[in-house]
């Protein structure tokens, strides 16, 4: 097992710089992103379409019973595993001791936190894979032997947070580590094997769809969210990875000089993507793509959650990185000042998406 790695030191948030209860940003139509979406068809919640949570695990939402029925084969093993956790007396005690009023509140909070920072979590895991296994060899390293990325979280102290802080502020990252799939299956007294195998089996149709949609698709990177104060409850995300074709093609055209220039900057570029993503989580700005984005490689924008028409929605601080100005958000300023690679954050994130 790779030794536990701590996240970088993060300055404490300030009320004045991270408040997300009001919003004065002017953004074009289509740039507002709802956090609450149907887990099957991705429909967003609106005043006219209220989503309902799964009564078994509280972790996902559906817009109709039909969507819930269609999603059940894949959701079933996850749902039942979480239901078992809720019914465990020790786990329930841990949840209440961590400041949550019920298992339902705990898991709803965890799911919204993970969903709010989905882009950042995927970037952190991918960057760690590339730094651990090599920029060119990361995918092979991930699969030999197959590995799982563990993200360790703890509940953030409410002191110092905005009065109406969103659930995207609920936890903070305390560290990360890698385990092999075999180590993962051996966790929790052997029950980890049963749970893991159920999840993997349920994901087979998704794996087929991903492979059919992109000839460069390789595998999914599993991210396992661990809340250290509630060891009996956890959650797993799977982020698809494709083998890079653009950068090798560009380097081939530029010869030895291009390769030398790339070798000099690639490590700092990946480290910047890692640190910037961690800082976005821990200094209370969320990185997300606009709803109008068509390409999964589109660069995300920093934003915050506001209340609009009775629902929490995400709004970007600006709609183009060229419009960034210091003072919009203290955490964003800190993250921008820490960049090592050349070309600015938009260039860094664009190249990182191609790796």
Automatic annotation (TrEMBL):
Instruction: Tell me the domain of life.
Output: Eukaryota
**Pfam families to which the protein is assigned, alphabetical:** zf-MYND
Q: Where is this region: Disordered?
A: 1-31
Supply the SUPFAM superfamilies for this chain: HIT/MYND zinc finger-like
Its recorded name reads MYND-type domain-containing protein
Q: Which organism is it from?
A: Polyporus arcularius HHB13444
Q: Which residue numbers delimit the MYND-type domain?
A: 38-79
Q: Give the matching InterPro entries.
A: Znf_MYND
The molecular function terms in GO held by this entry are:
zinc ion binding
Q: Does the keyword Phosphoprotein apply?
A: no
UniProt entry keywords in alphabetical sequence: Metal-binding, Zinc, Zinc-finger
Q: Where is the composition biased (Low complexity)?
A: 14-26
UniProt entry tagged with the keyword Zinc-finger: yes
């Amino acid at each position: 097992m790779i030794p536990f790695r701590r996240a970088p030191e993060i300055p404490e948030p300030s009320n004045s710089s991270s408040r997300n209860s009001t919003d004065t940003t002017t953004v074009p139509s289509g740039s507002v992103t709802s956090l609450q979406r149907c887990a099957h068809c991705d429909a967003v919640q609106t005043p006219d379409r209220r989503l309902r949570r799964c009564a078994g695990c509280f972790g996902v939402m559906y817009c109709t019973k039909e969507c819930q029925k269609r999603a059940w084969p894949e959701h079933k093993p996850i749902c039942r595993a979480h239901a078992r956790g809720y019914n465990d007396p020790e786990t329930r005690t841990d949840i209440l001791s961590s400041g949550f009023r019920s298992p339902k509140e705990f898991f709803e909070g965890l799911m919204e936190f993970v969903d709010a920072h989905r882009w950042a979590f995927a970037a952190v895991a991918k960057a760690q894979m590339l730094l651990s296994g090599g920029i060119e060899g990361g995918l092979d390293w991930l699969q030999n032997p197959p590995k799982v990325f563990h993200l360790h979280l703890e509940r953030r102290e409410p002191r110092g947070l905005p009065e109406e802080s969103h659930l995207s502020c609920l936890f903070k990252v305390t560290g990360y580590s890698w385990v092999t799939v075999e180590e993962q299956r051996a966790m929790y007294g052997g029950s980890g094997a049963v749970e893991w195998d159920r999840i993997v089996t349920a994901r087979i149709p998704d794996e087929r769809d991903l492979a059919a949609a992109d000839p460069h698709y390789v595998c999914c990177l599993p991210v396992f969210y661990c809340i250290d104060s509630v060891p009996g409850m956890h959650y797993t995300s799977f982020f698809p990875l494709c083998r890079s074709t653009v950068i090798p093609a560009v380097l081939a055209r530029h010869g030895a000089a291009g390769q030398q220039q790339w070798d000099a900057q690639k490590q700092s570029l990946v480290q910047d993507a890692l640190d910037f993503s961690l800082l976005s989580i821990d200094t209370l700005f969320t990185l997300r793509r606009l709803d109008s984005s068509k390409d999964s490689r589109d660069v995300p924008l920093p934003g915050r959650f506001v209340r609009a028409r009775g629902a929490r929605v995400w709004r970007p601080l600006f709609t183009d990185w060229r419009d960034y100005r210091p003072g919009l958000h203290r955490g964003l300023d800190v993250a921008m000042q820490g960049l090592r690679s050349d070309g600015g954050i938009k260039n860094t994130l664009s190249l990182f998406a191609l790796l």
